[in-house]
Amino acid sequence: MKNKNKLKKNYIRIDLSAEIEIYNLKGQKVKQLFSVQLSAGQHSIVWNGDDDNDHPVSSGIYFYKLNVNDKTKAVKKCLLLK
Known about the structure:
The chain contains no helices and six strands.
């Protein structure tokens, strides 16, 4: 079973365009989790610890970037443990 890491659970009040990308400590993009139009409501995001080529990445510190309507709204740190 793959390690699943829930990044965030949030409630959105309006429809919006959202994108989340994962970066390593070198600033290299590891994974684009999603880029979709979200409807109002509660949403949660799960990263299973793989990269864009479906290869597992190593345990460590990663950053995730949230873009909303093509603007960066947050960059947060996350710890991936396997």
